[in-house]
Amino acid sequence: MPTANIVGREVHLNDEGFMTDPSEWNEEIAAFLARQIGIDPLTEDHWKVIRFLRTDFASEGETATLRRISTLAGVGTKELYGLFPGKPARKMAYVSGLPKPKGCV
Amino acid sequence: MTTESSGFIAPKFDADQGRKLALICSKGTLDMAYPGLIIGNGAAQEGIEVHLFFTFWGLDIIRRKTIHKLTVTPVGNTAMRMGSTSLAMPQWLGALPGMSSIASWMMRGKIKGLAVPPVHEFLTQISEAGGHLWACKMSVDMMKLTKADFVDEVEDIINVSDFLDLSRDGDIIFI
Fold first, then answer.
1. What percent of chain B has pLDDT over 70?
2. What domain range is B120 assigned to?
3. How many domains does chain B have?
């Protein structure tokens, strides 16, 4: 499994580049990962989503789907597409140091 | 900043750029409405340009009067099992009055249990995700409907050549 040094911290990645150990994540890493995919800076709205994903993952054991975020985090679908354009569900998981969501909606 | 970072791999988030998917939704039953909605929504989430073209019975999925009343019937459906067993539901049982309502109610419950939205909410979600919903002109004329009969998410009533223009160089799936 590849490892990378991100902002001075050793992290494990899968072949696609997603972090495999959520406990290695921190906010500085999030900002770095976001920059890699063209999201710079992370605004308070981005953080609201990222914090929801982190908390939800800790309690549910899996990454929230877009539908779950839009209904529970109080951030609408349109807004999520604006914050993380293109592939919102994957990008949110990526920046949050979590696996891609398994659910379909 | 980046000077402190090394060995980094970036995911290919732009792999689907320029990809296009057109779904022809031709059936208006509850069980046949969802495949198009789920694939269409999933594609929109991956940044793929999505067009849903509702034709014939599929118009029920976008009609204000029917959108909340889609049903599934056990009659003639030999794939309908008794719960999670492998036992086929006897056709005489499926034909009893009220059985379609019960089957539809059960299916809605299962869909909800998976946190999948009801039909109208799903259409809204697809539309907000940038997906496009279209009604088929010939079916609309045949059923004597107008744009006002459809939910607001439907962009327009279009004919086959419009649809073929929209789906040019895309994948087309008929449901």
1. 98
2. 20-74+89-174
3. 1
Mind telling me how many Å the CA of B131 is from chain A's nearest CA? 11
The whole-angstrom separation of Cα B100 and Cα B98 is: 6
Cβ-based neighbours of B18, under 8 Å, separated by 6 or more = none
Task: With respect to residue B10, please indicate whether it lies within any of the assigned structural domains.
Answer: no
Q: Which residues of A are catalytic?
A: 104
DSSP A41-98: S--HHHHHHHHHHHHHHHHHSSPPPHHHHHHHSS--HHHHHHHS-SSHHHHHHHHTT-
Which residues 113-132 on chain B approach chain A with CB closer than 8 angstroms? 115-117, 122, 124-125, 128-130
Instruction: For residue B102, tell me if it sits in a domain.
Output: yes
Q: Give the tens place of pLDDT for each residue, A26-39.
A: 999 999 999 999 99
Q: pTM of the prediction? A: 0.89
Residue of chain A whose Cα is closest to the Cα of B12: A16
Residue B132 structure tokens? 């496009």
Which of residues B63 and B100 earns the better pLDDT score?
B63
Q: Tell me, what CATH number does B157's domain have? A: 3.40.1260.10
